[in-house]
């Protein structure tokens, strides 16, 4: 595929995705922890309004879910007793209740799937206790037992058909605590090249890091001299090329969070979830772990050396002939799930 084709596969600012993959998680084993999955996600997932400076997505919530997106980033403000979705000062014409209902409607139709949802208070001058209380009430009233609101990272089998809540509240635990995750979110972009370099390092850290830790890599950004769409036009094709080097092999990239993703990039992320041979769970990477990546601790992004851990993990996998055969069969099954739209 030439450079133009890769750009089109990685970046999409049209109203509908070029392909759909609504049931890709159903092909994976129940025993897989979410921390060992490669999960495509969107940043400011409901940000469709506000002009070029604020708009981060062009697909509706339903279109994102049908395309295979399984991480949603939802920012809310408490207004007149209701949690409304905002991006900065721009109201996105939907409430959190509406987002929960539409997501659960998708999960009723596709019960083998699970959706991670980060819920955040948008731009408070100081954290409001009323926001946490209202959020808790909203989750309880809308969940009907179909939300994962516990601190530990679940297996896929535990959360099929459910929303997994990630939250960053100071005084309440309503889901997996956001600050315990390994996160790269360099959102203020001064240099597109440096933005991608940081995202690439974190993707490689996810591929070689502690399999019990969830890694979130935000490939999105904004800045004084750029906008979300321009950042995505540059970063998304770079991400596509990076992931394509290990296409067809089991690599855990963690949660890859994008603005204006293309269907080809989503497909690459999804197809990296090729089961290994140890009971259906991918083999742990053979690369040594950095001291910060110890089980049960709050983890930060660690700088990597000049050799990409992704490439070392790939060479480790390539030496296992039996794993390759199983991977090709599973890879083919995942590819068949990806249906081109008409």
In short:
The protein is of the alpha/beta class and 342 residues long.
List the SSEs and their pairings.
Layout: H1 3-10, E1 19-20, E2 39-42, H2 61-67, E3 71-79, E4 82-87, E5 90-95, H3 96-109, E6 115-121, H4 129-143, E7 147-148, H5 156-159, E8 163-167, E9 176-177, E10 182-184, H6 192-208, E11 215-218, H7 228-244, E12 255-258, H8 263-271, H9 309-318, H10 321-337, E13 339-340
Parallel strand pairs: 2-3, 2-12, 3-6, 6-8, 7-8, 8-9, 10-11, 11-12
Antiparallel strand pairs: 1-13, 3-4, 4-5
Helix pairs in contact: 1-7, 1-8, 2-3, 3-4, 6-7, 7-8
Characterise this structure.
By secondary structure, the protein is α/β, with parallel strands linked by helices. 35% of the residues lie in helices and 16% in strands. It is built from 10 helices and 13 strands. The strands form 2 sheets. Strands 2, 3, 4, 5, 6, 7, 8, 9, 10, 11 and 12 form an 11-stranded mixed beta sheet that branches. A two-stranded antiparallel ribbon has the order 1-13. Helix 2 packs parallel to helix 3 and helix 6 packs across helix 7 (228-244). It is globular and about 50 Å long. The two termini are 22 Å apart. The relative contact order is 0.17. The model is unreliable at 276-329 (pLDDT under 50).
Number of strands: 13
Low-confidence sequence ranges: 276-329
Distance between the termini: 22 Å
Characterize the main sheet: 11 strands, mixed
Strand content: 15-25%
Structure classification: alpha/beta
Shape: globular
How many helices? Answer: 10
Alpha carbon gyration radius: 19 Å
The proportion of residues forming helix, as a percent range, comes to 25-40%
User: How are helices and strands ordered from N to C?
Assistant: HEEHEEEHEHEHEEEHEHEHHHE
Average pLDDT level: 82
